[in-house]
Amino acid sequence: MRRNPERPASLRTVQNYRDCLVQVARRIAADGRELRDLTQETAEAYLRSRAGELGQKALDMHRQALQAMLVHVSRRLLQGQRLEVVRSERPGRHRSRAYTPAQVRRVAAAQTPRNALATLVAHAAGLRAHELLTMARPAEQPADPRPARESKFAGRPGVDYTVVGKGGLVRTIRLPKDLAGRLEERRREEPATVTDRGIRYRSRYDVGGGRAWSASFSAASVRALGWSRGAHGLRHSYAQERTEETKRLLPRHAARETVSQELGHFRASVTDAYLK
Q1: CA-based nearest residue to 117, from 47, 67, 54, 187
Q2: Distance of CA 117 to CAs 109, 204, 209, Å?
Q3: CA-to-CA distance for 167 and 146, rounded, in angstroms?
Q4: How many C-beta atoms surround the C-beta of residue 134 within 10 A?
Q5: Fewest CB within 10 angstroms: 23, 47, 56, 80, which?
Q6: Statement: the pTM of the whole predicted model exceeds 0.70
Q7: What whole-number distance in Å separates Cα of residue 222 and Cα of residue 18?
Q8: Do 114 and 230 share a domain, yes or no?
Q9: Distance between alpha carbon 30 and the CA centroid of its chain, in Å?
Q10: Domain interval for residue 25
């Protein structure tokens, strides 16, 4: 699954890039430099200088933000040129972020009804926090035309919805019939505009989502379990549970690609991090 190069970066991506560049600007200001002074060589030197402090995900985000700036703003890089990929030197975290189904139910039981339903939906469909705010029936928000394996959602009967994911990708998700029924009970008569992290979403269902739901989940997890791995851990749960399911039906590579498409990842390799 590849990102459409003609589609502009999502507002969330733009915000992430901005936040990274603010950090870079503060860091290099100590040396009397500004962002406009950076070249390919000094940008890569900056990334290497942060390799001991930042995890791989954060380091990659800094690289992508600097690369976008050098290409589109200062024009120190040509279109298609890439900054060196610098590897983080921080010890990796090997503890899984996933929750068991029983743990998810315990967390949901410690939340308000609207946040509890959001937690169960996020676990059942592997949703990001903001995607909960974008759920719609396929007829009112069609999925983007993307190549998809016939094995997508194999072994999981239910009701299909769509959500808007990273990069504005609209993808299909599937919920168990009973959970879909509970979701429809909370359908708004008219869509509401909900703002999360400065981005406006068209919300058709009165359920939790975004930063407020994430905070609710973490707090409820601490109350119910004594710890929290964050709401994003529900995507890890989905990835691991679905991989085990699909491996019974498909060869390993096909199972990996199927789960990747269900999660809305642009590359199947991204899903590997969710399986640890």
Answers
A1: 187
A2: 10, 14, 10
A3: 14
A4: 22
A5: 80
A6: yes
A7: 32
A8: yes
A9: 33
A10: 11-73
In a domain, 165, yes or no: yes
Measure the CA–CA gap between 128 and 131, rounded to whole angstroms.
5
Nearest to 131 by CA among 75, 179, 201, 191: 201
Residues in the chain: 276
171 & 40 share domain:
no
Structure tokens at 149: 């394996």
Same domain, 183 and 232: yes
Nearest alpha carbon to residue 66 among 28, 21, 30, 27: 21
The token pair at 191 is 């869509």
Please list the helix, strand and coil fractions of the chain in percent, rounded to the nearest 5, in that order: 50, 10, 40
Helix H or strand E segment including 236: helix 233-247
List strand residue ranges (DSSP E) for 122-209, in order.
Answer: 159-164, 170-175, 187-196, 199-205
Residue 178 class from Cβ within 10 Å (0-12 exposed, 13-18 middle, 19+ buried)? exposed
The whole-angstrom separation of Cα 43 and Cα 63 is: 8
- Each residue's pLDDT, cut to its tens digit, for the chain (276 residues) gives 344 444 445 677 888 899 999 999 999 998 889 999 999 999 999 998 898 888 888 899 999 999 999 999 999 999 989 999 988 887 655 568 899 999 999 999 999 999 999 999 999 999 999 999 999 999 999 999 988 889 999 999 999 999 999 889 999 999 999 999 999 999 999 999 999 988 999 999 999 999 999 999 999 999 999 999 999 999 999 999 999 999 898 998 888 899 999 999 877 777 888 887
- Write a three-state SS string for 68-85: HHHHHCCCCCCCCCCCCC
Residue type at position 17: Y
